[in-house]
Each structure stands twice: as C-alpha cells, then as structure tokens.
Amino acid sequence: TVARAQVVARARPSPLAPKTCRLSLGDRVMGWQQGGWVKLQEGKSADDLHGWVLAGVETDARSPNLHLHGPELRISRIFSESAMLEWDAIPAKVVEYRVEWATMDEPDEVTVARDRETMRMARVHELPADSRVMFRITAHVLTDSPEHGGERFAELTSPWEEAETGLEIDEVTESNLCLDPLANFRGRCMDCNCRGFVLSDYGDTGAGFDTLEHMLCRRCSCSCVRHFIIGEFQYRQGPRAKAESKPQQKPLKSEAEAREPQDARLQNTDRLALPAPAQVQEPPPARTWRPEDAGDGDRVKFVLDKIAEAQNLYEVFGINVSFDDDAVRRAFRQVSLNIHPDKVQHRNDLDLMSQAEAAFKIISSAYEVLGDTTRRAAYDRTVLRTSSTYLANRGVSSRSGLTGLSFLKKFLGKATFGWDLTAKPPGDQWEDRGGGKYGRSDKVYTHITHAITGERLKFEIERGTTLKALRKLIVDKVKRGPESRIDLASKDGTELSDGFRTSGMTEELVLVGIGLGPPKDIELCLSHAHTGARAHISVLDTSTVGEIREALLKKFPHWESSKLRLGLRADNQDTFQPLDESEYLNGREQMLVLGIDLVVKLTKEEALELQSELIEAYAAPWFQRHLDELLEDFQTPAGLAEPIFKDRFSELMRRAQQATLVKNGFDGPHGVYNMMNAFSEVSYEPEVVRLAREIDSKLRVTVGCVLPGLVEITLESCGQATPGSESSLQPPMKTDSAKLKVFEGCECRRVREAIVQRFGGSLEEVQIFSDSMDNSAESLPILVKLDDSERLGRIRRLRVSGVDLSAPEPARPQKSRGVAPLPLPSPSDEGSRPREANVPKSADVERRVADDGNAYTHSEFVKYFAKDAERNWKWAGQRAQKEAKEKEDREQAVKARREAFEMAEKWKAADKAKANSGSLAGAAAVYGGPAAADGPVVRSAPASAALPVSAEDREELQRRLEECRMQEKKRRAEEEVARKAREGAARKAREEAEQRDREEAARQAKADAERAVREALARKEREEVERQKREEADKEIVLEVRHAGLGGHSVTLQARRGWSMLEVRRATARAVGRPEVLEFGRLVRCRADGSYKSLRDVDRLTSLLPDEGVVLMNTRLDENLERPEVQDEDYREAEARRVQPGSGGASPANTKTAKAAKGKTEGDVKRPDTVEVTIKSIHTSRAQSLQVKAAATIGDVKEALANALGKPEVLNVKLLRRNNDSSGYTSLLDDEVCGSKRQLFIMNVDLEPEPGAPLAESPEDRQVVVRKELQELFPMGAILSTARSTLLREGEGLDSERVLDLEPGQLCAVRGHGAGKRLSVEMLPEPGQWGWLTAATKSGEVLVVHASEQQLLALRRQQHPPETVMVTVAPATGGGDWAELFVLDSLTFAGLKEALAASLGRPEVLQRGRFVQRKGAASFAGIRDEEFLGDRRDFLYMGTDLTPQR
C-alpha cells in the first residue's frame, strides 16, 4: 500500500534512473521485494504499473513509501493443544510456506511447525494448553521446483497473529468424551503424538457433520477416523469399580465385590447420551500351557498351534489374567525363543518360516499391550470386562491359518483385541512396507556395557550383523582399538563365538578390552627407528596418526612436516612400516618416527637413576669374572689399545647395559651414543661426577666412563740424587732411561703398577718423582714425590727409584696377531717327535704350529689354550710327523724315479752301440770299457757313462729297465685316472657354475622384482606426499595481510595454503578495490624480530614460518571509496603495467617480447571500419573529435576537420604529433597514413566551429564541452594549488555567499565539476571545508594549477606519517645483481644512498655512487641527493658494484 502522496516508480533500482509512472496515496500494488526495492508486477497492457519503487524512507522524507503486506494468515479454529491455520495463495508458480509459532511469554523462542509446505492450510500440534500463542507464515518464492535446481527468488512474511488455546483436558473430560458418535472407543492418533481421542464441540459451528471425518479431536484437531479403535461401548448393569482403572495383577473380583458406586469417569452429558450399563459377564477360564508341554514332539509346531488357537492376548502366552508382570515377561521370553524367525531359518520349510514370522508379529504386538501396566489395564477394562459374548465353543484353529487374512481379522479385529487392522502394530520393531502392510524391522538396538567401568554405548545395527562387523562398528564409534583387543559376551557372561549374529530387537552385551567413555589423555612414547632415541608426548587415546603428527609439529616446531613419518616395526623387525594418516591410535603406547633428528636430554634425577642402575649392572659377579679374564689376557696398558680387546670389551659392556638401555629408551644400534649425548646438560653436576667415578672403579680401565688413550712417558732412574734434596750437591752419574706407555690422565698408582709389570720389582719399593724448578735462576731441579691419587696430567718425564730400568723386557709369546709362524723342526730331529707320553720330554723346547698358524711351546699351549690344551698339543705333533713322513716319501719316490730313468737311458745307448758295432766289444768301447784288439772303435763315450758289460750287469739293467717301464705304465695309468678325475671335476665345476648362474639369474630376477616393488612403493609414497602437498595447498586458511604503515590497516582473506604471492596480491587488490596493489604493491614477510624480507610472486604461503606474517608495502590498503566504479579491466591493466623488481622502472610492456605479443594480439582482433581521432589545439585547451576511416591519411583527416569546423584554412596548416619523450612535436605529411594515431595536434587555427557548421554547438552543448574539458584538465581527486588570490564560495553561482579568501599556494582537492569553469573543491591539509572556485578567468588567466611534487610531499607528510616501503635498486647498465631495501618513504636520495652502502657493506657507494633516471633510449639523467623518494620505488644506479661485500 502506498503510504505517501507522491511516489515515483523508476526503470531501475536507482534514484537516478528514469521515471516510469507515479503512485498515489492509498494505491495497492503487487510486486516482489529485493533488498530495499520492490519490483512491480507488470500487467498485459502498456498502461499498467511497472518499474521499481523504493520501499524504505527516502533522503528527503520522514516516512516509508510503501507499507508491505505479506500473505494474510487466518486462524480458522483453535483447540486445546493445536490450531488450524489458513492463508491466501501467493500468485507464483513454485511457492513453499513455513509455519512458525511462539508464546506471548517467550516471543523470542520461535518453533517451526511446518516447513516447505505447499498447501494453503496446516495444522499446528503440540501447543501449550491455556496459553496465548502467536502464529506467522513465511512464503518462499522459487524460480523453479527444487528437483530441477530452483533457487529462492523472494521471501514474504506475514505479521504475527495472536490466539489463545483451549483449556487443558482433565481426566474426567477425557473419560467422558473418548468415544466417537458411533460409540467406538478411540485411542492414539496415527498422524501426531496425541495419546487419546477427545471429542470436540461441533454443535455450534453450523457446518454439516454427516461423516466421521468431520468429528475432530479436541486435543490434536485430527479427525476421529485417524485415531485407533480400541473397543466398543457396551451396556452393563451396575457401575464400574474404580479399581478397574488400576493394573490387574490379581484375579478379578467376583460380581458381588465389583458392585460399587458408579464410576464418575463415564457420565451423561449434553453431547453424549450413554445407555445404561450392561451386566458384567465373567470371561471363561483361559487355557494355560507351556512350551515344555510339547514333550518329544516338535516344539515349534506345538507353540504355533497354541498361538493359532488363542482367543485373547493372554492365551497367546499360555497364561491367564491373574498372572503378574514378571510372569508375563517370562512367558513372552519362552514363547519368542521357540518361534523366533532366526531359530527356524535352518529348516527347509518355507511355510513354517512364514508361519513363525506371522506368529512372532502376534506375540510382539501382544507383549506391547500386556507388558505395559497402563495398556494392560485398559485392555482388561475395554475388551475382557465389556465384551458381550465370548466364544463358549472354542474352535480349534490350525497354524496354517496364521498367515491368512481370516486369522488376522480374528486376532487384530476390533471385536476381540481392539486393534485396527490397517494401523501399525504397537512397538518400535515394525516398519511400514507400503499398502497398509507392516513387517518386522531389520534394525537392532544394541546396548554395550563395559564390564569393569560400567560405561555404556548405544547404537543401531542391522539384524544379522556378525561379531567381526560389530567389533569394527565399535572401533569406529569410540575411535579406540584394535579390534583384536575387544572381547564381547552376553549379559549373563557367556562368551560370544565368531559365528554370533545379532537377532533380537535389543541386544544387551558386555565388553572388555577397550574403554567406552570419553577421550582420555595418555602418554605416547616415540622412538627413532634408526637411532632408538625416544621422546614422550601427551595425546588423546582416540587420536589418529594425523592428529598425532599435528601435536608433534606443535611441540617440536623445528621439525619439517614433509619429512616426518610415523609408523611401526614390520613383522621381520628390520623394516619401517608407515601408518596411514586416518588410522587410530588403537591402544598403542609406542610408535616409531623417521625423517627427523630426535634428541633426548636427561634431567638430573633421571641421570642419577640411570647411573645407579649401570653401577648395579657392572657390579654383578658374572660381569666382574669376565672382566678379570679379559684383563688377564690383555695386560694393561698396551694390550688395551688392541682392536681385539676393544671388541671384546664393547661386547661385554653391551651385555651388561642391555636391560638398562631398553628400560630408559636407549635401545637400538645407536643407543649407547644417544645415552652419552643425553648426559650433555647434567654432566658437570657433582652427584653425576661422583657416580661416574664409581662407574670407573667398577670398570677399572675407563676414565670418565670411556676407554682412555695411550701416551708415552720417559722414565729415568734417580742416580745418586736424594729425593727432596738438591741434586747438584753431588753430581749424579749417568742414569738409565726407558719408554713406557700408560693411560692418558691416569693416576700415579697405575703408573707404578705398569712399571712393576714391565721391569719387575716390588710395588712398595718403586717410587716415582717429578722435576721441580725453583724461582731463582741459579737453583737446580728438585725431585718431588708423586702421590698415588695424583693424576698424570701433562707430565711426560718421570724419575723412578727402586727398579732397574736397564733390565731387558721379558719376552711374552704372542697369540694370533698376524705374525709369521716359526719354522718347523727337521723330521730327523729326535726331540721333535713325541714318544709314548702325551707330553714329550722336550716340551719346553719343542715348538708346534697351532691352528692360528703360530708356533708355541707346550707351556704356552697350556697358558693360551687352556681348554683341550693337551689334545691340541698331541694333534699338532701328529700333524707335524705326518707332514714330515709325506715329504720324505715324496723325495724318495722322486729320487728312485730319476735313477731308474738315468739307467734306462744308458741301457738304450748300449743297445744302440751294439747294433752299430755288432759285437760286445763295440758296446764296451761305446761305454768306455776295454776295447778288443781287432775291434774297431766307433766312438768314445764320456767317462761318466761307462758301465760294466758282464752278463749280471746286463740282467740287472734289464730288470731295472722293466721296472721303469712298469712304473711308467703305472704312472700313465695314474695320470689317466687323474685326467679323468680332472675332467669330472671340471665337468662338475661347469655344472656347478651353470647352477650358480641359474641361481644368480633367479636372485637377480628376485632382486629386480624387489627393486620394482620398492620403486612402486617409493612412487606410491611420492604420490602420497604429492597428494598431501596438494591437500595441504587446498586447505583453506584465514590470512591477514597488514600494511607496513602506522595506520594499522589490514585485510582478512579466505585463502588456501598453496596460494602464491601473486594470488595473494590479486585477492588483496579485489578485497580493498584498489588496482594499484597489483601495479605497485610489494608483499614482504615480517619476522618475529620486526625485520622484513621480500617475497617473490612465485613464493607460496607454505614457505612462511608460523611466526611470520604477510605485510603489504608501497601502496595503500584502506578500502577504496570508489570501489563500485572499478572494473575487472582495471585490475588486468594494472597487473600488466607492473614493474618487475630490479628493472629500474622499465615496464614489461616496453620489452620486445611484450611488443611482439601485443602486435600478435592486435593482429588477431578484427579492426573496426572507422576510428575516432581527437585533434587538440596547442595554444588553447580546446579539442574536437572526428570519425574517420581506419585507413585514412593525414590529408583525409584535415579535410574532414575543415568540413566539420566550416573553416577551409585548416587545409593549409600542418597536423602534429607529440614525441615519445614529450620533448616536442613532429609535423605529419598529408599522404602519411593515420594508422594507430588517435590524438593529433594543430596550431595557428582556432578549433571553434563556425555558425551552422556540423560541430556548431548549442549553449547547453557548450557547457557540456567545457565541463568535459575541465574534467580532463582537473580530474576527480586531483590536488590543486591556487596560483593567485581567489574566493571560495558556498554555491556554484558567482552570487553565492563567500566562504573563504584563498591566498596563493593553498592546496585543495577536486570533488566535482560544475558549469563553465567552476570546480567543487575540499580544502587541505585538514579536509572538511567545502566550496566552489573558478579555475580560470574569462580572459584566460589561470587561477589554479596542479600542485608541485614538493607540495604533494609536504601534504603527504602532514596527512600521513612516514611509513616503511620497499625499494629496488638495479644497475643502470643492465645485468648484474640488484638490491632490495626497506626504508621510510620520507627519505631523500642521500639517505637512500647511505642505506644502500650499509646494506651492501660498501663505503664507496657514498663517494662514487649516484642514482639516475632514463632520459632516452641510451641516455640517463642524474638525480640530486636532496630530492625525496616520493612515489618512486624502483631506481637505477651507477658508479659501483651492487654485489654485497662479504
């Protein structure tokens, strides 16, 4: 409704939009409210109202334009606890309504009764009785249906409507009016939570009530047909007993006892005329039975038959009305256990399974009635005691009829049991199957109780859930585990097997193994997988691995999140098995970590306790016994430096420390080193030092709990000097000296013991002294005796008495040390062979080679090989004898073979000589025998080859030759056997090599497979790390970007962890509406100490430390008041103009790449046919714009300008263009193409058009042109300075009141443009003074000019205090390093030079360095040191190198 006399409708929701129509006071309009405006509903004709109307209060008015009306709500009827509401439909396609109500006492607590309602009426239930309530309706208009993605378009809300609910229904009213007009007892409602029907008043409504649907409930306003029928009213004689309303736990009273005064709960009223009560008929005795009555028969079928024969609810369980509640409960349990559907699933009888299902529904419904005391009393009263007839002749029903409709009608019909056949059976175990059918629900309500703490857990599960699945659900519910620790049992303590499945409606179970209560703090031990170092952290026992990781990073912020890994030891105890981030702690108290350095430091109390445990371990008898044996084998101190001793001593120490290290968390391969490092902070405590000395006393060879090093000292005998007196009194004789190795820093007592061990003597007689010099120059050395408790320190020269240092060192046989063994004695040596005794007589002289390769005497064998020494000595002797015998046999065989072959060669020579000479004499001559007188001599042989030629000799030679032949044959046979053996061995070796090759190939294949698996796991791990990085980058965070200035401006952004600094700048610029943030802004990180460090555009938010923030410099961060006028193109252009750091102010648009990209982009865009060219006069500020062809020449532009101005003289002048460096103008030729030139200049011609010319203007247009020129000359926000004295007036006209007299040099800011050359300005530096002034006089004298740089700088200092900015200094010659500095914006270039010199560490910057600015393509102009930085942030520098001086 229009509330004002004149209201204007506009074409757009803006006060400046054109008018569409006018509205008068009292007009009613239809429309949709959007914000503070109402869009009028348009009609079919053009004269209908349309447009937008401001609904609120205008600037010059005191009351709103429109009174808005929402949907009209009407309360049709009000009841005791409900109400019926109606409203008018909203004329829209898709509308959803929400109904709300509240009480007058608590109007702020609004309750939503109906939501997303599509009808025009609703019932509101569960209202407080006898109370004043309010109702309202809210209509949501949607663009389309929600199924098709419709969105909310408008919202209309009605005013509150008040009403008062009826009186609360008392017990008498409920008893008298609980019947419908057909005398049916009505119970609870099917549509709401109404507990019982109460007939409402309907006689005075005037409506026709010819059906039961019009009979409403006084409580819930629902129709009576929506209430269950629980019985019929019957006539009887005599009043009811009041006791009938109580639970019937005892047998019913007799008829005489039941006659009492009439019950006041049923009375005659004007609304209901009740007939006289009928005679009470006692029910026949019920049939009682038990499942055990089946005997040896089928118990399931027996129970089903009994249920089918039942005539009332009591007979279903085999009991009568006199049974108490416990008996009913026991009977229901016994019957349900026998016919439960899960009990008969194993039978292959489908009919029996369906009968059991139907029977179970019946007993469940019956128990819902008889198991509740109130409902059982109502059942006894309404069914048993008021039934007019009972089945005297009980028919025998069959269990086959359990699933039939006839039995359901008999059992569930209202005549007998009082249940509506179409209603849902009582109980929560039934669910609607559709079509009025209800089936047993598959949900099981599970109640789990902890056996020890009593904690309880409740949830719903599916019927038939296995024990394994139940454990998993419990783990997911309580976030504890693992599942293997959970043990479940029934309520009576029976342990459940793995085959257990949930079956009943409610399962009561008992649990042990995990807690069911709220999360608790536990101490988690973290152990390094490699070093064994441990740390403890307190976490919740329901934490996941990811939450534990966050807690660790919070406690140890120096750890890197990307490297930290949590896991367990794998089954083989050798590999690290990582855990998933979503896995729960599952009762674990220890975890392994990798990827970080875990350092443990002990407190004083922990260190003392650890030392005490080590002392107890070292004092153990077994440890001291083994240490004695070790020190006996390796004499101190030289023997302690041997590697064998160190290995055996380390192994002995490791065995003694094992239990203590594991207990204190120093297990693992590096446990000892971790323990030593843990003492770093308490090692100088007196108690710790005392216990360390006690540990040294237990170990006997350590100093500071570690093996000391060896030092060599020089020992000299005392000679004739007397200890304690000047040795120069009697010159000492030549003294003996010796070298001795002792422990570094040991006590003097151990030095004496080493001397006695080395040189012999008695420990009491040996004394050691040191030389001491007096202060006087002429004093002689004095010998000072050293006590046993004194440390050796740096003393390396000692005097010794009581021992002869010249005695040779006793030779000690060495055990296996890699020394070459002694040579064995000759086999012919008699002393080397043992006789009958185990130990030969020459045992102390004879040496035998042991298994280690060294030769020992018998006594040395006994000393070094105490175990089995005699047997080893015997074996060594036997081995030596066997080797000697084999050597002798080999030598004899070689000698015999050599002699035989020599003889064979001689015999062959004799045979050859005989053949040549033909006589024995020739042979004799050949062999050097006596020659025959007549025998020729063939040739002579050497004397050594002479042989006898007798027959015996020939036979001997023949025999020996035969022996040689046999030996040769035997040798060849042996060689053949050896050859075959070698071939067999070679063949076997080849087979073994092939087998090894196959095994190696198999191992290589296995290794390749394992490597592939490792690579796959590594790749999967890398992918997981990348996924985590992506998730971390996609995680939303709240980022605060602060300004470096003192204004305290900041902006809060909804960013992501993976954002780059370029994205942060873009979001910041759009958040405050300032494109200059993209062009000039610099983001830096602010450290905890207040220092800054620049951030590159590619840097990510993830690189920031937790204590570092993001700070913006070089631009403003307050919100732009002209933000609505900023377009997306402004942000893109500002980002394109951004100067890169280190470029010295060179924009990327000036680079060749940017020019090429720009040219390519311009070539891809289709050029327009015509372009606009602006021609300006150099002498005046006047300009004209022309539309010319894109390919026009300068002559065409001149011709078009002459025609537009009506001045032919334009054709005789030159058009000019401005140079790039703004240093002057260049004339253009007439045949030159205009091209991309859009602004040209002209001189010697007035651009004022002639009257009647196309560009001739009307006075109104002239004002527009002047204003446009003024806006171009002095734009909005420009800072001006008065050039001479002028006036500031209140209004735009010259006759307006004077505000202020302005002197030359006063500053003001342009806030608007008026007619002529009038400007609306605001005085500075203290804003608030507004007014109008004239920019120039009619004669052309300028009154205001732009403020100079010095004036702007002074103004900025007054308005804004100096703030920190980031400047970049780059070499003017290009290339090389560039520097970043954080300085105040009020600094001069001299101060900037000092800051640069301090930053680079180069003092020469102050003498030789200078800042320049680019003047041309290859020239520079210097900048004076007294100039201020101003708005400049990027500078060029020359004179010195910008590399920091290290």
Key terms for this structure?
alpha+beta, 1446 residues, extended
How would you characterize the overall build of this protein?
The chain is an alpha+beta fold. It contains 29 helices and 55 strands. Strands 8, 9, 11, 12 and 13 form a five-stranded antiparallel beta sheet that branches. A five-stranded mixed beta sheet has the order 23-22-26-24-25, covered by helices on one side. Helix 12 (621-633) packs antiparallel against helix 13. The longest helix is centred in the last third of the chain and has 84 residues, at 951-1034. About 13% of the residues have low confidence.
What do the pLDDT scores average to? 75
Helix content: 25-40%
How does the helix and strand content classify structurally? alpha+beta
Q: Give the low-confidence spans.
A: 203-209, 235-282, 385-396, 404-421, 720-734, 773-780, 811-844, 917-949, 1149-1166
Alpha-carbon distance between the termini?
82 Å
Approximate strand percentage: 15-25%
Total count of strands: 55
Q: What's the story with the biggest beta sheet?
A: 5 strands, antiparallel
Task: Please tell me how large the radius of gyration is.
Answer: 59 Å
The helix tally amounts to 29
Question: Rough shape?
Answer: extended
Give a quick rundown of the structure.
With 1446 residues, the chain is an alpha+beta fold. The chain is built from 29 helices and 55 strands.
Helices and strands, with pairings:
Layout: E1 6-10, E2 19-24, E3 31-34, E4 37-40, E5 52-54, E6 73-78, E7 83-87, E8 94-103, E9 111-117, E10 121-124, E11 132-142, E12 152-157, E13 161-164, H1 171-176, E14 184-189, E15 227-232, H2 255-258, H3 299-309, H4 313-316, H5 325-339, H6 350-370, H7 373-384, H8 405-412, E16 430-434, E17 437-440, E18 443-450, E19 456-462, H9 467-478, E20 487-490, E21 506-512, E22 521-528, E23 534-540, H10 545-555, E24 565-569, E25 576-578, E26 590-594, H11 604-618, H12 621-633, H13 643-663, H14 671-678, H15 686-699, E27 710-717, E28 737-743, H16 748-759, E29 767-772, E30 782-785, E31 797-801, E32 848-849, E33 855-856, H17 858-864, H18 869-917, H19 920-926, H20 951-1034, E34 1036-1043, E35 1050-1056, H21 1061-1072, H22 1076-1080, E36 1082-1086, E37 1092-1094, E38 1109-1113, H23 1128-1136, H24 1152-1164, E39 1170-1177, E40 1183-1189, H25 1194-1205, E41 1215-1218, E42 1225-1227, E43 1239-1242, H26 1259-1273, E44 1279-1282, E45 1286-1289, E46 1298-1302, E47 1307-1313, E48 1318-1323, E49 1330-1334, E50 1344-1346, H27 1349-1359, E51 1364-1371, E52 1379-1384, H28 1389-1400, ...
Parallel strand pairs: 18-21, 22-26, 27-31, 34-38, 39-43, 51-55
Antiparallel strand pairs: 1-2, 3-4, 4-5, 6-7, 7-10, 8-9, 8-11, 11-12, 11-13, 14-15, 16-17, 18-19, 20-21, 22-23, 24-25, 24-26, 27-28, 29-30, 29-31, 32-33, 34-35, 36-37, 36-38, 39-40, 41-42, 41-43, 44-47, 44-50, 45-46, 47-48, 48-49, 51-52, 53-54, 53-55
Helix pairs in contact: 3-6, 5-6, 11-13, 11-15, 12-13, 17-18, 18-19, 18-20
